[in-house]
Design goal:
Layout lengths: L7 H5 L1 H15 L6 E4 L3 H10 L5 E5 L2 H5 L4 H9 L3 E5 L8 H13 L4 E6 L1 H15 L5 H4 L1 E2 L9 E5 L11 E6 L4 E6 L7 E4 L9 H20 L5 H23 L4 H21 L3 H13 L3 H30 L9 H18 L14 H13 L10 H9 L27 E3 L17
Helix pairs in contact: 3-5, 6-7, 9-10, 9-11, 9-13, 10-11, 12-13, 12-15, 13-14, 15-16
Bound molecules: nicotinamide-adenine-dinucleotide (NAD) and fe (ii) ion.
Length: 451
Amino acid sequence: MISELLSESFRTTALGAAMKGAGLAVRFLPIPQPTILVGPGASGRLGQTIAGFGHGRILIVTDSIVSRLGLLGDLTRALSEGGTEYVVFDAITPDAPIPLIEQGIDFYLEHDCDAIVAVGGGSSMDASKAIAAAVSNPGKSLRELAGYFKGLQTPVKIYAVPTTAGTGSEVTVAAVIADPERQAKLVIVDTRLVPKMAALDPCLMTGLPPAVTAATGIDALTHAIEAFVGKWANPYTDDMALSAVGLIFENLRVAYSEGTNLAAREKMALAATYAGLAFTRANVGYVHAIAHQFGGKYHTPHGLANAIMLPLVLKYSFPAIIDRLALLAVRAKLGTADEPEEVLAEKFLDAVKELNRDLGIPAFLATLKEPDIPALAAAACHEAHTGYPVPRYMTQGVCEDIIRQVLPPAASSDKPAAASKKPAAQKKAAAATKNPATATKAPARRARKPA
Ligand SMILES: NC(=O)c1ccc[n+]([C@@H]2O[C@H](COP(=O)([O-])OP(=O)(O)OC[C@H]3O[C@@H](n4cnc5c(N)ncnc54)[C@H](O)[C@@H]3O)[C@@H](O)[C@H]2O)c1
Ligand SMILES: [Fe+2]
């Protein structure tokens, strides 16, 4: 992957070259792999482990929902018991907008921190990576750090506790951040951004709403499928992608309908991580290329955009990937290896559509407008053709036809193209929390106890 939700203007220009660079970087450079703690209580065990590393003061980066739900408790207790100071910055909002990351940078510096623990979904993890890169390279702005290996100095150490099972950012080389001024998303890529350790703690995921469970779960599925059917797949990424697909077919419906099922939550967390290990090396394809345009234009949640496009792009790619889809079908337990490949591949396509239906994913993109389609398709093709190892080439015309299939039934073709939704207003200011046991001065922003 490398380019989650990058928005249109950026995508049509900088992204192309960036994707190419990313591809080269991830194909030929060794990518570090974090030590991963798995299971109920893993976030507390991560805290105990980090406390032994001798950090002076840790910055915990999260969002206010995760903080309010009390998901930091095990981690912060373990840090305190281990005698490690920490401060909490819980102002991150979806897609990690630059102004909030800048507040996080100031907060890190004000409190003289020397490492970061990210607790949250992709937005908090990517904000953490961006803060880590920025504080280690003070001469460069976040916009200047966007791109490939733009920071000379190694980012400060990051540890990650994902609370969604989707992005895989806990093991990837990328940080995707939003630039509200340009209505664009930027990507910072550096193999040194991969967290040192991660905790996959299913107890933190039981409160994820079903719609977020569904969208983030299909994001992980799309990472695995696109990595597996793309041309950069290798035996390692195949192993990871197949494992992810098997786990997702077995567990996503359960996690969706029975959110407190710890076993299903844990398997989904593992699946997202495996998919992350696959796509950070083998990259993604047209599903992501198109979904990114929907994210940029209409602020469609990334997983939802992927889910809507996945069946259609797989159908188009079908003739080139029958053998690969057949392998995925067997791993998803949709058939057995002695069946004809084409039959298995068809079964896989049908199963993806059925999974979407079961998860309440719509077949249409409600905000899509016919007049927008040519520009969306052009940007998607540009993104894909300059960086993604797609299995079957798509012309812009074909891409337009595919996107047209998700127009809502009532969409009128003569409406003007300007009706895109504005992003939700960003929440204001950071809420800072200082470890009461170790606080030496009042935090610069509103201070309160951890939830
Ligand atoms: N770096 C990468 O490799 C990579 C890969 C994929 C996506 N991304 C990026 O990640 C971001 C999306 O991340 P995401 O899909 O994880 O969503 P997110 O981090 O934006 O979180 C979505 C919502 O779920 C809430 N939430 C998170 N955990 C929760 C929990 N346990 N219980 C209840 N609510 C919870 C959050 O508060 C938020 O409102 C995008 O910016 C995308 O571009 C990055
Ligand atoms: Fe994705």
